[in-house]
């Protein structure tokens, strides 16, 4: 019985929406925008999270990193020493990485620095291309494959040879349709021989889409113009060690190498993928909270619209309310009718918002490398939030309607 | 007592108006038996609208008592009054007061919705009520697709569908031409003949002439209460 009344309410609500299209559309718009923001943001954040997780998984779940300094979240510095804790830590060096490679149980250590610089070939030139300087074994820790040609050898690496592996994107831009292996290009004005084409696994924020050139690290430090002091290591433990065991060994080896006394703190940072993900999560969570606050403002605006349209609706239908009361509707039944109407309004807005949010997600998917996907919880949250908005903001007009005096209401013109 | 549908005693209704109190009813006593057909008349300001609101349980008196079908209803809460209206009273208004966007059938079903009757039974009873007023062929029309007389028949069907102990009509022909008025009054007479208790509030003597008893109010008091020989 309550059900049939609810359906009647929905029917009445849809009727009155149809009768006042523009007014209803404006009200719905407010709710729809709020919902759209929630859905699109949730989708984008899910996409970013997923892409980070995927990238880390490709690295091999056991790889961990050594940084000069690492702290989760955003680091803010005013340039002073106490606001810049990383200044207390000495730079990591290639020698340290080479030392760590010899620690028993460690399968591989690669080191890496990167920069952005000019790359040209013939008439084609780009002013800012991603240039990566990698130590040996980088394919192992980085994932991806050499599709054509070869990687640079340990010898070329040690000698600082002018050889380059480029990714398929850069190849496509420099020599469309041609085989780039054996051709020549200039990086930071210096000539390099292309020896291989690298295809990356899909990765974060469109790195897979941006043209990149990979050169031996020893060559990188000679030719590149870069921000010095931020060499990082990626460490892959052997199968005989657990990740914490491997981290302990690396920490001990690095402390011994640097001659730290037992009382001294580590002057470097070890970061496992879990920790990286954790810090990333906390960042996206903060971001998401801000977006949630913004979209709830949108929902509030929609809610105020709901109040307005419902107040008008109650006034317009004073007589109808009087008739319904004369026929035996109790306060609660009148209240219920108008609440259902308000909830229907917001629910329609919610559905519109979800469609818009879905469209936006599709657009993000197509136009950016973020694999955005609408998570189920955001749909549930959006429906719940807009229903609550509808009921909350419908409460006042509905209770006003329910308290109308039937005699007055029947007399209303 | 048991055959009295309505019994009011010393009924008083006062309205506050600009700091003063206006007495619309000043101690009215009246009984209406089952299957009576009563017209309530009186000039404007005589208190007949007030009385009709009180009899219809749309309003509560400031003083006095009202027994409707044996139940004291003068001190009930709003929601209890709503239940009484739903069960005991069928309203017919001057302006029909049908829901404009609902079909005739749906309009007639409405009191049953509030009575909590299941949808199948609701439909059956609404169809029966519409058939009773001769509108079985117009059930799915909306009010704006019906003539004035047909609209008032829908309203009558709606008033009857709950089998109320009292049919209360407020100027039921006020918006109708004289031919249609006669038609509606014939419906009332038929219902009366079938045993329905009817109270019609009107200022038109020609309408009141259809009733078997005419109660005239003046200044919030009973002025006259006469049997109508012609109709009886």
Main attributes of the structure:
heterodimer; A: 413 residues; 2 domains; six-stranded mixed beta barrel; 13 helices; 17% strand; elongated; B: 232 residues; six-stranded mixed beta sheet; four-stranded antiparallel beta sheet; 34% helix; globular
Explained architecture:
The complex is a heterodimer of chains A (413) and B (232). Helix content of chain A is 55%, strand content 17%. Chain A has two domains: 2-54 and 278-411, no CATH class; 90-267, no CATH class. Chain A is elongated, with a radius of gyration of 31 Å. Chain A has a six-stranded mixed β-barrel with strand order 2-3-8-5-7-6. The longest helix of chain A has 44 residues, at 273-316. The two termini of chain A are 32 Å apart. Chain A is of the alpha+beta class. Chain B has 232 residues and is an alpha/beta fold. In chain B, helix 3 packs parallel to helix 5, helix 4 packs across helix 5 (148-160) and helix 5 (148-160) runs parallel beside helix 6. Chain B has a single domain (35-60, 76-227), classed as Rossmann fold. Chain B contains seven helices and ten strands. Chain B is globular and about 50 Å long. The two termini of chain B are 23 Å apart. The model of chain B has no long low-confidence stretch (mean pLDDT 92). The A-B interface holds A 1, 4-5, 8, 12, 15, 19, 319-320, 322-333, 406-407, 410 and B 53, 56, 58-59, 78-79, 82-83, 85-87, 91, 93, 97-99, 101, 110-111, 113-116, 118-119, 158, 162.
């Amino acid at each position: 019985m309550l059900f049939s009344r609810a359906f009647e309410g929905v029917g009445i609500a849809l009727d009155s929406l149809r009768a006042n299209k523009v007014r209803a559309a404006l009200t719905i718009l407010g709710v729809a925008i709020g919902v759209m923001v929630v859905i699109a943001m949730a989708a984008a954040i899910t996409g970013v999270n997923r892409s980070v997780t995927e990238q880390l998984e490709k690295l091999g779940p056991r790889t961990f990193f050594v940084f000069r300094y690492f702290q989760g979240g955003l680091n803010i510095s005013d340039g002073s020493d106490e606001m810049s804790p990383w200044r207390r830590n000495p730079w990591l060096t290639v020698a340290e990485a080479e030392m760590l490679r010899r620690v028993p149980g460690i399968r591989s250590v690669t080191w890496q620095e990167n920069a952005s610089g000019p790359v040209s070939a013939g008439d084609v030139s780009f002013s800012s291309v991603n240039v990566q300087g990698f130590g040996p074994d980088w394919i192992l820790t980085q994932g991806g494959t050499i599709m054509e040609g070869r990687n640079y050898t340990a010898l070329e690496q040690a000698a600082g040879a002018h050889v380059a592996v480029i990714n398929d994107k850069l190849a496509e831009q420099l020599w469309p349709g041609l085989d780039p292996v054996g051709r020549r290009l200039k990086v930071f004005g210096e000539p390099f021989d292309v020896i291989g084409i690298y295809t990356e696994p899909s990765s974060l924020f469109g790195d897979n889409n941006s043209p990149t050139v990979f050169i031996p690290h020893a060559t990188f430090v000679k030719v590149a113009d870069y921000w010095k002091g931020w060499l990082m290591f990626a460490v892959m433990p052997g199968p005989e060690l657990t990740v914490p065991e491997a981290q302990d060994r690396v920490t001990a080896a690095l402390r011994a190498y640097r001659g730290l006394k037992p009382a001294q703190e580590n002057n470097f940072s070890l970061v496992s993928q879990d920790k990286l993900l954790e810090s990333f999560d906390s960042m996206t969570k903060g971001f998401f909270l801000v977006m949630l606050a913004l979209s709830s403002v949108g929902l509030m605006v929609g809610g105020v619209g709901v109040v307005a349209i419902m107040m008008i609706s109650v006034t317009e239908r004073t007589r109808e309310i009087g008739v319904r009361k004369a026929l035996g509707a109790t306060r609660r039944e009148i209240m219920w009718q108008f609440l259902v109407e308000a909830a229907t309004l917001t629910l329609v807005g919610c559905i519109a918002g979800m469609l818009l949010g879905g469209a936006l997600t599709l657009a993000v998917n197509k136009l950016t490398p973020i694999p955005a996907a609408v998570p189920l919880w955001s749909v549930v949250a959006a429906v719940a939030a807009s229903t609550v908005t509808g009921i909350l903001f419908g409460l006042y007009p509905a209770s006003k309607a329910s308290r109308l005096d039937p005699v007055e209401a029947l007399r209303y013109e | 007592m048991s055959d009295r549908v309505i019994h009011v005693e010393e009924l008083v209704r006062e309205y506050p108006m600009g700091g003063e109190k206006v007495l619309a009813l000043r101690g009215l006593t009246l009984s209406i038996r089952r299957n009576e057909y009563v017209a309530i008349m009186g000039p404007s300001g005589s208190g007949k609208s007030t009385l009709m609101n009180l009899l219809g349980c749309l309003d509560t008196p400031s003083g006095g008592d009202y027994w409707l079908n044996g139940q004291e209803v003068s001190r009930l809460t709003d929601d209890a009054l709503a239940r009484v209206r739903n069960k005991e009273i069928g309203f017919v208004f001057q302006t029909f007061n049908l829901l404009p966007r609902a079909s005739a059938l749906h309009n007639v079903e409405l009191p049953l919705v509030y009575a909590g009757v299941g949808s199948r039974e609701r439909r059956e009873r609404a169809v029966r009520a519409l058939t009773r007023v001769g509108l079985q062929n117009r059930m799915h029309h909306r009010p704006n697709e019906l003539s004035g007389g047909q609209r008032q028949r829908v309203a009558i069907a709606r008033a009857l569908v709950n089998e109320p102990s009292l049919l209360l009509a407020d100027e039921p022909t006020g918006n109708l031409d004289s031919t249609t008025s006669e038609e509606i009054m014939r419906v009332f007479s038929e219902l009366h003949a079938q045993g329905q208790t009817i109270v019609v509030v009107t200022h038109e003597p020609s309408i009141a002439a259809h009733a078997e008893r005419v109660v005239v109010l003046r200044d919030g008091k009973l002025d006259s209460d006469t049997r109508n020989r012609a109709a009886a």
